[in-house]
Structure formats: C-alpha cells, structure tokens
Amino acid sequence: MSDSTGVVIPLSDGRRSTSDLGRAVVADALRGVDPAGADAARGEKDWRKRYPAHFRRLVEDGLGSPEIARRIAADGLASFASRMRWFTPGRPEIPLAERLAEGADEPTRDEGPLTTETVVGVGAPETDLSVPYRGTRLTGDDLRRQLDDWVVRGIVEPDLADAVRRVQYHPEWLALPDRTVLVLGAASEMGPLRSLLRWGADVATLDLPRPELWTALLPDVRRYAGTLHLPMQDTEVRPVEGRAGADLLHDLPRIGAWVDDLAPGRGLVLGNYVYADGALNLRLSAATDALTVRLLQRRDDVALSYLATPTDVFAVPPPAAAHSRDRYRRRRARALTAGVRTLSRGALYRPGYPETYDGPGVTDCIVPQQGPNYLLAKRVHRWRATDARAAGIPVAFAVAPPTRTRSVVRNRALAAAYAGAHRFGVEVFDPATSNTLMAALLVHDLCADVPARPHPWEDEAAHAAHGGLWRTAYDPRSVLAIAAATGVAARH
Fold first, then answer.
1. What pTM value is reported for the model?
2. Domain check: are 55 and 178 in the same one?
3. What does the alpha-carbon distance between residue 320 and residue 423 come to, in Å, rounded to a whole number?
4. Any residues with CB less than 8 A from the CB of 35 and at least 6 apart, and which?
5. pLDDT tier at 104 (50, 70, 90 boundaries)?
6. In this structure, what CATH number is given to the domain that contains residue 181?
7. Whether the predicted pLDDT of 358 surpasses 90
C-alpha cells in the first residue's frame, strides 16, 4: 500500500512534515496552561534535536494540578486528531475523524466488509502465573523472591510486586472471564497475545495481511488454550493464513465496523501495541486513536490498555527520587565523577533529582536518537489514557521495562546504551520476560479493585517496571553517552 494514501500526515507548505505536526500539537497542548511554553514549542527551529525540552515541559506543567494535567491531555489529543488526514487518490483530502465517521458502508477499496474467523486452541489453560527469566520460568515462591530482588535493587516500583503477587493469589483472573481483549499488533514483541492465550482468554487480534506473519503465529494459537478471533479479507476457500489481517492505515473504516461487532455480550478491552519506525509510527498512532474514539462512542463496555515506553519523561513517586538521591550520595569514585561533571559543564553525571525538593520528582529518560515522532506517538497514548480515566473509562496502563526488542537492537545508539546500562544499576529485560509481566499487570488492572488516584501522574507511575531508570544515582540522560561507550567497549 502507498505511504501517501489512507491515514497521512497533514500537508504543511506543500509537504508532509512530521516536525511541523509535532511542534503544532505540543504547542496546542500547552497553549491553555503555559502560553510562553506553547510559543517556545511552536517557534522551535531545530525540532529534531531540541524536542526533549518541550516534552519535559508537558510533564512539568501538568504537575501544577490534576486539572492542568487533564487539560494538557485533552488539548493535545484534540490538536492531533484534528490535524491528521485521510487521503484517497482522486478525492480531496479530509480529516481522519470525518472519514472514520462515514462508517464502512462505503468500502475503502473494492473489498467488502471484513469477516471473522475463530481459532480455538486445544491446550489446557495455565492456571499458575509463570514468568520466563534468564532461561527458566519463575513460579510461586521463586517468582515472589525475584520480585523482592527487583524491588530492593530499584528495578521496579514496590507496587508492581504487590500487583503481580495479587494475580498469583487469584489465578482465576488469568483467563479474564467475561472479557475479550482486542490486541492491536499481533506480532508485537511487547504485546500480551501469547500469554493471554496460554491462560485461556478470549482474544481478538489485528495485524497486517501478511501470510508469513500468520503462518508463524497460528500454530502457537492452536496449541494454546485460548480462543482467537481474526479479521478475514474475504470468504474464499483458502488457508486462514492467506486471508487473515487488515491494514490500519488503509482499511480503517472496515476495521471499525469489524470491531463494532466483536464480543457481543462481553466486555471489550482495546489494547494498543502497534509500533513502526518514524513517520509511520505517528500515522499508526493516529489510526489507533481514531479507532479508540469511534469505539468509545459506540459501546459502553470498553476498557483501554497501553504500555508506556521507559525512555520518556515521567513524574515519579517521592520514595523513588529519595532512593536516587541516597545512591548519589553513596556513589563510588565521587572525585572522578565530580571532575568529569565539571569538565563537561554539568552535562555528565548530573544527580537524578534536586537535593532539596521532596515532592514528586521528574525524570528525563528520553533517548534523543529515538526521535520526536516516536515520543509524540507514545505521548498520544498517555494523553488518551488520562482523558479516558477522567471520563470514567477503565484503563490498564503500565510503564514497560527497557527491553531488547528488535527495534532496540536495530538502533545502534540505544542498543549500545542498553548494553552498558547495568553499570548504572539499570536492568534490561528480554522480550519474553517483559511481555509476560506486562500481561500480568493487564490482568491485575482489569480485575483488581484499584482505588482512584488523585493525580494523573500517579496513575502513570503506578506499578512501573522502569528497569532502574527512575532510581539510578544519575540523571539518565547525563550518563546515556557513557553507558553507550561502555556498551560498545564490552561488545568488542
């Protein structure tokens, strides 16, 4: 399919500029609460290098009050949604929301509506939570001991251990009775698809119509215990693998109609786990968010699920900031690090948080090489979670740990930094560990009676698996280059 049709970046001076889009959306998000910050974002000439400061401002401004944080989220979402476009060759470009609102009566292309194929697994459901970790699977007391170890070392927040233990004590939650989870991104390394199917859940999933993708996935589905519902392109007599899937960027109206009819009589959980590089990630974020809005307008039984990237800016609980300060005071080679910090004019080995402030800290874990498109796409997820909670919609949300996914391995700078991260007390997880832990937190958030938190930052920080980034002695950005250099040296 064409990169210039379907869901597209808006035109700006005759070109589709993601930088112009990013500047405008961040400025609009800030305009109602911080006009000076909005002007700074709108006027930023070197967006691709200097975007981190503006994304940090979004978080810092939101700490002023819950109302401010919610307004930033609502205004940012409105700006993003109003700017993204739908383009069909031979027709005028229209707002994305308008195209989706037309419904599926007018097919995107020549195909008819998507149908559903259901695959029922033949295995026995797993009724004991197990988490793969370093060549073994942790269950029972072994898992509880590992959770304790992660908490002591500052790898996860203590309430993550509490949440996972609660799932252990309620194995009947694992199959998510009376709910269907729609996993957007069947092939996602961080998604919960395989865990949910092992636990016997009812799952629907969506990914591109690529036979090789479904050929790799469906044998596992059939041997697990769960039930999987797939969108089908047609009803011809062909193997399922050759008909499954749909393209969010070009088939969105048909997908919307397909989702409307999913799981009648059951609660529907919309889980967003799609990922792509660069501008494509922004287009996918727009498509999934438009689908979310459409679904929330049509059904009253919907919950949402998101994973936040650890390489972003977050407000963190005061105990996490205090832990970091204590580590900074007790750091080794103090004279050396102080000397390097002086020579770098404060750029290297900065303390993680100010020494005197006892409120929530702000940690900046942005890896600039990931780029502003990635961060804006992820920020849209955070804003939607905040906005949905304010409307009383259930949301499962977790900060995922640093993980050796394929996208990380492809990014040389990030891969090198992850390879050297252990020197600063940061643990990088394997995908199987991460996605199973995140699936367990999804189950917890959907099944446990979690009290409402006063401020959106507290919802975002709940049971975070940041890998140690929030509690390391140093500002993560100030040791990123050092971690990368030691990671490269270790490889060689």
1. 0.95
2. no
3. 19
4. none
5. very low
6. 3.40.50
7. no
